[in-house]
Structure formats: structure tokens, C-alpha cells
């Protein structure tokens, strides 16, 4: 069986590209496989086969329950995006929000001009794009943050209809993993603890988080909201996970703050 040609894929110098599927190939124009050369994995969006650089087909995943339109938009957005680099709009935005230089963030992408529907018309703006990854390693959706010309958040919005248990996997986990609500907050938690951190996107998504296999210690970095919503979600996940993981809830000491606020005061 002809397998994914990783040598050719890596030689292109691109972050992502499309190739034919060695399992359900439909001819020379087949582009069903989306190859991620940052995460070093490939997936066929027709038969759901997943491939890694050793050339082995791992297994067929269950079809993610998202609409075909959502799948198309997720793929299109990722294909048009590139990993962030020093000096681009997204890097400048994150550097300004964190107030410091950034570690390598291979899961964070920069889109030069993403369409945004606003007031009956579409406008185009630079955007930060981060994929939601499900418990089996599938891309289940996207978190998109549109930016203004002066580097502020214009709007953020997720896409994907089956995001329960998914997360924005910002750093490669060890046996310890910290999770937080927002992307910027999660990066701040990493700056404070030096632990790998993932973001869930919201407090309700944090409640539904499912750690991958191999995680033994889970740090739940909640927001200290006046409403109590962030704390409630953090403790809810704690009680769900405490029997199977060494869990700790981390809350910033000041009311109405998150860990990004705490980091900026240091």
C-alpha cells in the first residue's frame, strides 16, 4: 500500500497541505488528506483514517458530529492560516496582552484576512486561529479571534457543533497538565507555573474537559469571577476528576480577576 510521503510533504516548507488518501484514493486529483506539518499528523476527511510519520494507519476515528459546512470552513480557515511568527499581527497582540516575549506556540495560527459577518455585510480582518482538538486527537472546531488595526480584540467566536471534551492544545503535555478558560489566560498560567497548559474556551467548556490518556496530575486554573461562575466550573471539574487524577484547583487571589490579570501584576 502506498502511504503518506512525509519526505515530500516536509520538503514543501508549508505548514499544511492536501494529499491523496492511500486508503480510499480516488485518483490523481484526490486531496482528501489534510497534512499538518506542525503537529506531524495527517487525516483523511472522507474515510477518517489518521496517519503519522512512521507511515502506519493508526485507526479510523468516528466521524465528528459537525455539519459539512462547518467542516469545510474549518479546513479552509486552517489551510489559509500560518503558524505565528515574531512580528506578525497575532504575535504582536499576544505579546502586548502578556507583556512579555512568547514561548513557541505551534498550535496558534495567524490568518491574514478572515471574513467576519457584521451588520449585514462581511468585512476582512487579521485573526488568531486555534484549533479545538477532541479527546481522540481530531480537529473538532476552531477558536477565532478577530483583531483591530491597533491590535485589540474586535470579536471572538468558536465554530464546531461537537466541542464537548475538546480543548485548545497550546503546549505539549507531560504527566502534568494545567487547563484554563481563555487562550491568553492559559498562556499566563504557563508563564507562572512553567507547566504545559491547554485552554477550553469558556467556563462551560472547562466543566466538560476530558484529559487525554497519560495525564496523572491536573491543575485546574479557574477564573475568580464576581458571579462565581469560574470558580463553580473549576470545582465541578475537580469533583469529576479527583478519583482518577491528582487534581488541584488554582484561583487568583483577587476577586474579579483571572490568571492573566495576576500575571500582569507580577
Question: If you had to describe this structure to a student in words, what would you say it looks like?
Answer:
A hairpin with a 4-residue loop joins strand 3 and strand 4. The longest helix has 13 residues. The chain has seven helices and 15 strands. The protein is of the alpha+beta class and 266 residues long. The chain is globular and about 60 Å long. About 5% of the residues have low confidence. The strands form three sheets. Strands 6, 7, 8, 9, 10 and 11 form a six-stranded antiparallel β-sheet that branches.
What's the helix and strand layout?
Elements: H1 6-11, E1 16-19, E2 33-36, E3 41-44, E4 49-51, E5 57-60, H2 68-80, E6 82-83, H3 89-98, E7 109-118, E8 121-133, E9 139-147, E10 153-159, E11 167-168, E12 176-180, H4 183-193, E13 197-199, H5 203-207, E14 217-221, H6 229-241, E15 246-250, H7 259-264
Parallel strand pairs: 12-13, 12-14, 14-15
Antiparallel strand pairs: 1-2, 2-3, 3-4, 4-5, 6-7, 7-8, 8-9, 8-11, 9-10
Amino acid at each position: 500500500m502506498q502511504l503518506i510521503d512525509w519526505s515530500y510533504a516536509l520538503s514543501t516548507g508549508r505548514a499544511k497541505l492536501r494529499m491523496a488518501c492511500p486508503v480510499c484514493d480516488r485518483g490523481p486529483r484526490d486531496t482528501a488528506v489534510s497534512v499538518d506539518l506542525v503537529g506531524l499528523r495527517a487525516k483523511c476527511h472522507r474515510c477518517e483514517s489518521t496517519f503519522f510519520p512512521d507511515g502506519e494507519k493508526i485507526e479510523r476515528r468516528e466521524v465528528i458530529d459537525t455539519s459539512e459546512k462547518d467542516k469545510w470552513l474549518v479546513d479552509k480557515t486552517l489551510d489559509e492560516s500560518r503558524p505565528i511568527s515574531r512580528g506578525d499581527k497575532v504575535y504582536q497582540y499576544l505579546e502586548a496582552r502578556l507583556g512579555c516575549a512568547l514561548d513557541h506556540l505551534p498550535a496558534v495560527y495567524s490568518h491574514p484576512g478572515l471574513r467576519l459577518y457584521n451588520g449585514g455585510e462581511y468585512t476582512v480582518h487579521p485573526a488568531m486561529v486555534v484549533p479545538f482538538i477532541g479527546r481522540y486527537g481530531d480537529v473538532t472546531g476552531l477558536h477565532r479571534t478577530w483583531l483591530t488595526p491597533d491590535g485589540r480584540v474586535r470579536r471572538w467566536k468558536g465554530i464546531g457543533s461537537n466541542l464537548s471534551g475538546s480543548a485548545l492544545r497550546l503546549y505539549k503535555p507531560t504527566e502534568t497538565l494545567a487547563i484554563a478558560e481563555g487562550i491568553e489566560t492559559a498562556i499566563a498560567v504557563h508563564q507562572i507555573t512553567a507547566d504545559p497548559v491547554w485552554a477550553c474556551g469558556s467556563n462551560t467548556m472547562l466543566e466538560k474537559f476530558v484529559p487525554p490518556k497519560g495525564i496523572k496530575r491536573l491543575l485546574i486554573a479557574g477564573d475568580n469571577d464576581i458571579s462565581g461562575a469560574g470558580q463553580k466550573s473549576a470545582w465541578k471539574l475537580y469533583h469529576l476528576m479527583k478519583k482518577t487524577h491528582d487534581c488541584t484547583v488554582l484561583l487568583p487571589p483577587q476577586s474579579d480577576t483571572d490568571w492573566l490579570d495576576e500575571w500582569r501584576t507580577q
